TrEMBL record:
Species assigned in the record: Kitasatospora setae (strain ATCC 33774 / DSM 43861 / JCM 3304 / KCC A-0304 / NBRC 14216 / KM-6054) (Streptomyces setae)
Protein name from the UniProt record: Putative glutamate racemase
GO MF assignments: glutamate racemase activity
UniProt key word Isomerase: yes
Presence of the UniProt keyword Cytoplasm in the record: no
InterPro entries: Asp/Glu/hydantoin_racemase, Asp/Glu_race, Asp/Glu_racemase_AS_1
Keywords, sorted A to Z: Isomerase
Enzyme Commission no: 5.1.1.3
Alphabetized SUPFAM superfamilies for the sequence: Aspartate/glutamate racemase (SSF53681)
BP GO terms, sorted: peptidoglycan biosynthetic process
Length: 252
Protein backbone atom coordinates (compact mmCIF):
# COMPACT_ATOMS: atom_id res chain seq x y z
CA UNK A 1 0.00 0.00 0.00
CA UNK A 2 1.47 3.31 -1.12
CA UNK A 3 -0.31 6.64 -0.65
CA UNK A 4 0.90 9.96 -2.08
CA UNK A 5 0.03 13.36 -0.60
CA UNK A 6 0.37 16.75 -2.27
CA UNK A 7 0.43 20.20 -0.68
CA UNK A 8 2.26 23.48 -1.09
CA UNK A 9 4.09 22.84 2.18
CA UNK A 10 4.02 20.94 5.45
CA UNK A 11 0.26 21.22 5.92
CA UNK A 12 0.10 17.70 4.46
CA UNK A 13 1.70 16.36 7.65
CA UNK A 14 -1.70 16.28 9.39
CA UNK A 15 -3.29 13.96 6.82
CA UNK A 16 -0.09 11.90 6.45
CA UNK A 17 0.05 11.30 10.20
CA UNK A 18 -3.65 10.40 10.31
CA UNK A 19 -3.08 7.81 7.57
CA UNK A 20 -0.01 6.48 9.38
CA UNK A 21 -2.01 6.03 12.59
CA UNK A 22 -4.72 4.05 10.76
CA UNK A 23 -2.29 2.06 8.61
CA UNK A 24 1.18 1.94 10.17
CA UNK A 25 2.29 -0.30 7.29
CA UNK A 26 1.45 2.18 4.49
CA UNK A 27 4.24 3.58 2.33
CA UNK A 28 3.86 7.37 2.10
CA UNK A 29 5.04 9.75 -0.61
CA UNK A 30 4.83 13.39 0.49
CA UNK A 31 5.25 15.89 -2.35
CA UNK A 32 5.34 19.59 -1.50
CA UNK A 33 6.51 22.73 -3.24
CA UNK A 34 8.91 24.82 -1.13
CA UNK A 35 10.15 26.57 -4.29
CA UNK A 36 6.64 27.75 -5.18
CA UNK A 37 4.79 28.20 -1.92
CA UNK A 38 2.62 29.84 -0.78
CA UNK A 39 0.05 28.91 -3.41
CA UNK A 40 -2.74 31.09 -2.03
CA UNK A 41 -1.71 34.39 -3.69
CA UNK A 42 -1.29 32.73 -7.11
CA UNK A 43 -3.91 32.70 -9.85
CA UNK A 44 -6.13 29.61 -10.13
CA UNK A 45 -4.27 28.61 -13.30
CA UNK A 46 -0.89 28.93 -11.58
CA UNK A 47 -2.08 26.98 -8.52
CA UNK A 48 -3.28 24.22 -10.84
CA UNK A 49 0.07 24.11 -12.64
CA UNK A 50 2.01 23.82 -9.37
CA UNK A 51 -0.35 21.18 -7.97
CA UNK A 52 -0.14 19.15 -11.16
CA UNK A 53 3.67 19.29 -11.10
CA UNK A 54 3.78 18.06 -7.50
CA UNK A 55 1.22 15.37 -8.25
CA UNK A 56 3.06 14.11 -11.33
CA UNK A 57 6.29 13.84 -9.35
CA UNK A 58 4.45 11.80 -6.71
CA UNK A 59 2.59 9.62 -9.22
CA UNK A 60 5.95 8.64 -10.74
CA UNK A 61 6.40 6.59 -7.55
CA UNK A 62 3.32 4.52 -8.48
CA UNK A 63 1.03 5.15 -5.48
CA UNK A 64 -2.31 3.43 -4.97
CA UNK A 65 -4.04 6.73 -4.11
CA UNK A 66 -3.33 10.45 -4.38
CA UNK A 67 -4.40 12.84 -1.62
CA UNK A 68 -4.66 16.57 -2.30
CA UNK A 69 -3.97 17.58 1.30
CA UNK A 70 -4.45 21.29 0.67
CA UNK A 71 -7.62 23.38 0.75
CA UNK A 72 -6.37 25.85 -1.85
CA UNK A 73 -5.31 23.15 -4.30
CA UNK A 74 -8.57 21.27 -3.77
CA UNK A 75 -10.55 24.40 -4.67
CA UNK A 76 -8.66 25.21 -7.85
CA UNK A 77 -6.94 22.05 -9.06
CA UNK A 78 -8.89 19.01 -7.87
CA UNK A 79 -10.98 18.70 -11.04
CA UNK A 80 -7.85 18.91 -13.20
CA UNK A 81 -6.06 16.29 -11.10
CA UNK A 82 -9.00 13.92 -11.30
CA UNK A 83 -9.26 14.46 -15.06
CA UNK A 84 -5.61 13.46 -15.47
CA UNK A 85 -5.29 10.56 -13.02
CA UNK A 86 -8.72 8.99 -12.47
CA UNK A 87 -10.10 6.39 -12.80
CA UNK A 88 -6.76 4.56 -12.75
CA UNK A 89 -5.70 6.37 -9.56
CA UNK A 90 -8.15 7.51 -6.86
CA UNK A 91 -7.74 11.23 -6.08
CA UNK A 92 -9.00 12.44 -2.69
CA UNK A 93 -9.48 16.16 -2.01
CA UNK A 94 -9.75 18.28 1.13
CA UNK A 95 -13.00 19.96 2.17
CA UNK A 96 -13.35 22.11 5.32
CA UNK A 97 -15.33 20.27 7.99
CA UNK A 98 -18.24 22.72 7.94
CA UNK A 99 -20.94 20.04 7.84
CA UNK A 100 -19.99 18.25 11.09
CA UNK A 101 -19.20 21.55 12.79
CA UNK A 102 -22.65 22.94 11.98
CA UNK A 103 -24.56 19.74 12.74
CA UNK A 104 -25.53 20.83 16.25
CA UNK A 105 -26.74 24.24 15.04
CA UNK A 106 -24.45 26.26 17.29
CA UNK A 107 -22.11 29.15 16.58
CA UNK A 108 -19.43 28.15 14.07
CA UNK A 109 -16.23 30.04 13.26
CA UNK A 110 -14.35 29.07 10.12
CA UNK A 111 -10.66 29.86 10.41
CA UNK A 112 -9.18 30.07 6.92
CA UNK A 113 -6.61 31.91 4.87
CA UNK A 114 -7.30 35.45 3.75
CA UNK A 115 -7.80 34.23 0.17
CA UNK A 116 -10.33 31.55 1.12
CA UNK A 117 -12.28 33.70 3.59
CA UNK A 118 -15.21 35.29 1.82
CA UNK A 119 -14.58 33.32 -1.37
CA UNK A 120 -17.44 32.02 -3.47
CA UNK A 121 -16.21 28.50 -2.72
CA UNK A 122 -16.41 28.86 1.05
CA UNK A 123 -19.68 30.80 0.92
CA UNK A 124 -21.11 27.95 -1.18
CA UNK A 125 -20.10 25.40 1.45
CA UNK A 126 -21.67 27.51 4.18
CA UNK A 127 -24.89 27.77 2.18
CA UNK A 128 -24.92 24.03 1.54
CA UNK A 129 -23.84 22.69 4.92
CA UNK A 130 -24.31 25.52 7.44
CA UNK A 131 -27.86 24.51 8.31
CA UNK A 132 -29.25 26.34 11.33
CA UNK A 133 -25.81 27.23 12.69
CA UNK A 134 -24.65 30.84 12.88
CA UNK A 135 -21.47 30.83 10.84
CA UNK A 136 -18.69 33.42 11.06
CA UNK A 137 -15.70 33.59 8.73
CA UNK A 138 -12.38 34.45 10.38
CA UNK A 139 -9.40 35.32 8.18
CA UNK A 140 -6.13 34.12 9.73
CA UNK A 141 -3.64 36.56 8.25
CA UNK A 142 -0.17 35.02 7.90
CA UNK A 143 -0.91 31.96 10.03
CA UNK A 144 -0.20 29.28 7.42
CA UNK A 145 3.08 30.95 6.49
CA UNK A 146 4.09 31.18 10.17
CA UNK A 147 3.30 27.49 10.68
CA UNK A 148 5.35 26.63 7.59
CA UNK A 149 8.34 28.45 9.08
CA UNK A 150 7.69 27.07 12.57
CA UNK A 151 7.96 30.69 13.73
CA UNK A 152 6.50 30.49 17.21
CA UNK A 153 6.27 34.24 17.75
CA UNK A 154 4.50 34.80 14.44
CA UNK A 155 2.20 31.83 15.10
CA UNK A 156 1.25 33.21 18.51
CA UNK A 157 0.54 36.66 17.06
CA UNK A 158 -1.58 35.31 14.19
CA UNK A 159 -3.52 32.96 16.47
CA UNK A 160 -4.16 35.75 18.99
CA UNK A 161 -5.43 38.03 16.22
CA UNK A 162 -7.82 35.39 14.86
CA UNK A 163 -9.00 34.45 18.35
CA UNK A 164 -9.78 38.09 19.13
CA UNK A 165 -12.06 38.16 16.07
CA UNK A 166 -13.80 34.89 16.96
CA UNK A 167 -17.17 35.38 18.70
CA UNK A 168 -17.00 34.62 22.42
CA UNK A 169 -19.98 32.26 22.21
CA UNK A 170 -18.45 30.12 19.47
CA UNK A 171 -19.21 26.43 19.97
CA UNK A 172 -17.29 24.98 17.01
CA UNK A 173 -14.22 26.08 15.06
CA UNK A 174 -13.48 24.75 11.57
CA UNK A 175 -9.77 24.58 10.77
CA UNK A 176 -10.06 25.58 7.12
CA UNK A 177 -6.37 25.20 6.24
CA UNK A 178 -4.41 21.98 6.70
CA UNK A 179 -1.52 23.90 8.29
CA UNK A 180 -3.75 24.90 11.20
CA UNK A 181 -4.20 21.31 12.33
CA UNK A 182 -0.51 21.20 13.25
CA UNK A 183 -1.16 23.78 16.01
CA UNK A 184 -4.66 22.82 17.11
CA UNK A 185 -3.54 22.83 20.75
CA UNK A 186 -2.41 26.45 20.51
CA UNK A 187 -5.64 27.45 18.77
CA UNK A 188 -7.77 25.73 21.41
CA UNK A 189 -5.88 27.49 24.19
CA UNK A 190 -6.32 30.91 22.56
CA UNK A 191 -10.07 30.77 21.92
CA UNK A 192 -12.28 33.06 24.01
CA UNK A 193 -14.29 30.08 25.31
CA UNK A 194 -14.48 26.30 25.08
CA UNK A 195 -15.14 25.14 21.53
CA UNK A 196 -14.83 21.95 19.52
CA UNK A 197 -12.19 22.01 16.78
CA UNK A 198 -12.92 20.36 13.43
CA UNK A 199 -10.07 19.47 11.11
CA UNK A 200 -10.04 17.43 7.92
CA UNK A 201 -7.13 15.04 8.44
CA UNK A 202 -9.04 12.13 10.00
CA UNK A 203 -11.80 12.32 7.38
CA UNK A 204 -9.20 12.44 4.59
CA UNK A 205 -7.44 9.38 5.99
CA UNK A 206 -10.67 7.40 6.31
CA UNK A 207 -11.83 8.37 2.81
CA UNK A 208 -8.45 7.46 1.33
CA UNK A 209 -8.53 3.97 2.81
CA UNK A 210 -12.12 3.51 1.63
CA UNK A 211 -11.04 4.32 -1.92
CA UNK A 212 -8.36 1.62 -1.95
CA UNK A 213 -9.31 -1.80 -3.25
CA UNK A 214 -9.54 -4.67 -0.74
CA UNK A 215 -6.72 -6.40 -2.63
CA UNK A 216 -4.23 -3.55 -2.01
CA UNK A 217 -1.28 -5.28 -0.31
CA UNK A 218 0.40 -3.92 2.83
CA UNK A 219 3.41 -1.65 2.48
CA UNK A 220 6.71 -1.43 4.32
CA UNK A 221 6.00 1.82 6.21
CA UNK A 222 8.50 3.78 4.12
CA UNK A 223 8.54 7.54 3.67
CA UNK A 224 9.50 9.27 0.40
CA UNK A 225 9.85 13.05 0.46
CA UNK A 226 9.79 15.25 -2.65
CA UNK A 227 10.47 18.99 -2.66
CA UNK A 228 9.27 20.57 -5.91
CA UNK A 229 9.85 17.21 -7.56
CA UNK A 230 13.32 16.59 -6.11
CA UNK A 231 14.17 13.79 -3.66
CA UNK A 232 14.54 15.32 -0.21
CA UNK A 233 14.03 14.74 3.51
CA UNK A 234 11.54 16.27 5.89
CA UNK A 235 12.59 19.84 6.56
CA UNK A 236 13.60 20.73 10.14
CA UNK A 237 10.45 22.83 10.55
CA UNK A 238 8.29 19.73 10.00
CA UNK A 239 10.00 17.97 12.88
CA UNK A 240 8.88 20.63 15.36
CA UNK A 241 5.32 19.26 15.12
CA UNK A 242 4.10 15.93 16.56
CA UNK A 243 2.81 14.85 13.15
CA UNK A 244 6.27 15.28 11.65
CA UNK A 245 7.87 13.37 14.50
CA UNK A 246 5.45 10.50 13.93
CA UNK A 247 6.55 10.19 10.31
CA UNK A 248 10.25 10.11 11.15
CA UNK A 249 9.86 6.60 12.54
CA UNK A 250 9.51 5.38 8.94
CA UNK A 251 12.34 4.13 6.77
CA UNK A 252 13.11 7.01 4.40
Amino acid sequence: MKIALVDSGIGLLAAAAAIRRLRPDADLVVSCDPDGMPWGPRTPEDITAHALACARAAVAHRPDALVVACNTASVHALAHLRAEFEPALPVIGTVPAIKPAAAAGGVVAIWATSRTTGSAYQRGLIEEFGGAARVHEVACHGLAEAVERADRAAIAAAVASAAARTPADTTDVVLGCTHYELIDDLIAAALPGPARLHGSADAIAAQTLRRLTPATPPGDATLTVLHTGRPATLQPEALTYPQGELLTAARV
